[in-house]
Amino acid sequence: MDELAKAIVASCEESKRDPSRLMTPCPSEAEIKRSPIDVESVRQLCHQHRRREVHYKNLGIRWDKFHDGFPNLFIDNVKSVAGKDVLFLASFHSPEVIFEQLSVIYAIPRYLAKSFTVILPYFPTGTMERVDTEGQIATAKTLAQLLSSIPLTGKGPAQVVIFDIHALQERFYFSDFVIPRLESAVSLLKKEMSLLDDIGSVAVAFPDDGAFKRFHSMFEEVSCTIVCTKMRENGTRVVKIKEGDPSDCHVIIVDDLVQTGGTLIECAKVLLEGGAKCVSAYVTHAVFPKNSWTKFTTSEKVTFKNFWITDSVPHALEIAQHPPFKLLSLGSVIADALLSYDLKNM
Q1: Which of 12, 10, 93 is nearest to 319 (CA)?
Q2: 313 and 284 in contact (C-beta within 8 Å)?
Q3: What SS3 string covers the chain?
Q4: What is the C-alpha radius of gyration for the chain, rounded to an integer number of angstroms?
Q5: Comparing C-alpha atoms, which of 306, 299, 336 is closest to residue 323?
Q6: pLDDT for position 43
Q7: Which one of 31, 188, 193, 293 is CB 3.0 to 4.6 Å from 288, fit for a cystine?
């Protein structure tokens, strides 16, 4: 995740040079003069805001293992976090790395970090957020409880920043000892959409009702939205169009994540059969276990014009080397999330 960390720092620096990028910019000089509080205090505060910087620092974390396979961890420069506002970019893309990263995450606040923000782009157990049958385990709650055990800092609870979590109600799985911040990367897709030559004929499709509920309010400016649904016919699961008409449209299928990709492919088939002139896709989290992404590069049955993914998981960098995949870095949206509050007021 080094490349993403560097992209975040670069985006923060760009916003520092161009304050208009901030969601909540400092007041202008005219606004300061109209302020009912002390003018000089406001000026000093804004000057302090503009001075805030993000630095990419290698703490020298040794991710070693003992002979029995358990983590042997050591932070060489641990004293450098004392009195600092620490941002930790985590990646829970594999069960093998979660325990060791949690061990470091738990340790940092105890070394006197002034505040602590964990940036966790991908919340991996998000799809197991409910119990439909007795005996099922909602592992989304389990992981949320583990993150809720992050120790307090001098400025209070740690923040956990997550992008496009599977279901917004998962915020209630976290305890009051951390602050979950559920952000979205859809703005990256919308920027790409605005650059398309056929933007006038673009439609947005959702592969199921869950995706529609999660994202449809983010595309209110799109004139045509389509909802697909999964159903069983003669014992076989099929995908059909539930709402909307894809005729003569460039249809972009939107979802939070992709696993094997089977649903996206079936959705693309019915959209093309319904008259779509071409199909693209966007997911924030390109999970693709067992290299299942390759079916999108070799399939002759369905061709995707574009398949946008983000770097929320490390292997997305490799996937994006192969058309139709295109990488959208989370660096800018993470920077915007931080600059809208954290880096202005910490």
Answers
A1: 93
A2: no
A3: CHHHHHHHHHHHHHHHHCHHHCCCCCCCHHHHHCCCCCHHHHHHHHHHHHHCCCCCCCCCEEEEECCCCCEEEEECCHHHHCCCEEEEECCCCCHHHHHHHHHHHHHHHHHCCCEEEEEECCCCCCCCCCCCCCCCCCHHHHHHHHHCCCCCECCECEEEEEECCCCHHHHHHCCCCEEEEEECCHHHHHHHHHCCCCHHHEEEEECCHHHHHHHHHHHCCCCCEEEEEEEEECCEEEEEEEECCCCCCEEEEEEEEECCCHHHHHHHHHHHHCCCCEEEEEEEEECCHHHHHHHHHHCCCCCCCCEEEECCCCCHHHHCCCCCEEEECCHHHHHHHHHCCHHHHC
A4: 22
A5: 306
A6: 46
A7: 293
> What are the tokens at 308?
């946008």
245, two tokens: 């008409």
- Which tokens in the block code for residue 134? 């007795």
Greatest alpha-carbon pair distance for the chain in Å reads: 74
Q: How far apart are CA 125 and CA 128, in angstroms?
A: 6
- What pTM was computed for the model? 0.86
Q: Could you list the mean pLDDT of each consecutive 10-residue stretch along the chain, which spans 346 residues?
A: 80 69 47 44 47 72 94 93 93 94 96 95 93 94 97 95 94 96 96 94 95 94 94 83 96 96 95 96 97 89 94 96 96 88 55
Phi, psi of 185 (to 5 degrees): -105, 10
Residue 346 has a pLDDT of 45
Burial class (CB in 10 A: 0-12, 13-18, 19+), 335: buried
* φ, ψ for residue 75, nearest 5 deg: -105, 110
Alpha-carbon distance of 167 to 128, in angstroms, equals 10
- How much is the pLDDT for 54? 76
